[in-house]
Structures are given as C-alpha cells and as structure tokens.
C-alpha cells in the first residue's frame, strides 16, 4: 500500500487501483487492501466510484471465464454450496428484476465474493442483471472498506505525529466503528431473511405432483364382467 501510494500520481494510482481490483478477484486474491488504499487517498466520493468501477470489471471477467469452463466447475460448486446454488438457479428462472434482486442480496450475504463471480455462470442469470445487482450489492461493502482506510490513515497519523487522540476523536472513531459494524451485520441479516423468503415463495409456487387414485381390483373385475356381458354375440 505504501509503495502504491508513493510511486504514482493520483490519476495513475487510480488506474492502478482499478486494475488491481479487476485482476485480483479473477485469481482468487483479496482486493480489500486496494479498497483501503482507495479510501485513504481518494476519500468517500471519488473512492466509491473507483471501487465500483474496479470491482465491476473484476466481477465481469470471472463471469465470462467461468462460462468457458461451465461443465467442469458445475458439479464441484453444487457439492460445496448446495443451498446457495439451488437459490441462484431459482433466480435464473425468474425475470430481470428477480435475477437482479437475488444477485444483489447474495452480494450482501456472507457468500464468498470471489467464488460467486464464477458460480453465477452455472445458472441462467443473464449478464446485465448480474452486473447491475453485483454493483448495487457492493456499495455497502465498498463504504465499509473506505471507512476502514480512513481509520487506518487516522491511526497512522497518530503514530507518525507521536500524539494521542483527543476525547472527541476517540468518541468519533468508536461511534463510527460501531455504526460500520451494525451496518454490515444489518445488511447481512436482511439479505439472509430476504433470500429465505424468496426461496420459500419459490417452493410454495411449485405445483404438487398429481396423485392418481388407486382402483380396487374387485371394481376392475366387475367392470370387465359388465363390459363382456354387454357385447352382443352374432350367431351365424
């Protein structure tokens, strides 16, 4: 992070951060250090835009790569996360908004971020609702990572300036940390409940198999007897 911050100007650094957030998820590397540095250098406004652009590209590349190796990863993913895969498949059979909503909720849920980029390819979810839902679902996580970067910057300033926090700074940072945790937990709980509701609704809409009533053998025998007795016999 220090090397990136000191080696490039702001425009080049923004491009480097976008590239890192685009490539790292593709190769299963965490991109949150780049998000922290984005918060440190660019703050909330421009930092949020940079993160959404970088993660948007980083969520698109695995989608298209995964589509090339669909049959190889399908069975392994269903064994690893059977419940989540079943839910994504249900969303794939819905309309545009249904796919968008489920993708956004899964981004808010604890489902592994990097793995979901590849999981979406084994369903019928189209790319447009996938990327739109992914970007919307990433907004809370991006804001929390930007806040984490700003907090790291504040703590670093205290260390290098060799001073202590004032009472106001301590109260502000404690309240901000509590709010960030509550936001993360709140979105996670909401996403889980919403996904459970969607899954329950989809299960309730599935038609029950028709039950064919069994016919007693005695009734079948009586029907055969009546049918045979009603057939006229021609005598030549």
Automatic annotation (TrEMBL):
<dbReference type="Pfam" id="PF09335">
    <property type="entry name" value="VTT_dom"/>
</dbReference>
<protein>
    <recommendedName>
        <fullName>VTT domain-containing protein</fullName>
    </recommendedName>
</protein>
<feature type="domain" description="VTT">
    <location>
        <begin position="29"/>
        <end position="150"/>
    </location>
</feature>
<keyword id="KW-1133">Transmembrane helix</keyword>
<feature type="transmembrane region" description="Helical">
    <location>
        <begin position="41"/>
        <end position="65"/>
    </location>
</feature>
<feature type="transmembrane region" description="Helical">
    <location>
        <begin position="170"/>
        <end position="191"/>
    </location>
</feature>
<feature type="transmembrane region" description="Helical">
    <location>
        <begin position="12"/>
        <end position="29"/>
    </location>
</feature>
<keyword id="KW-0472">Membrane</keyword>
<keyword id="KW-0812">Transmembrane</keyword>
<dbReference type="InterPro" id="IPR032816">
    <property type="entry name" value="VTT_dom"/>
</dbReference>
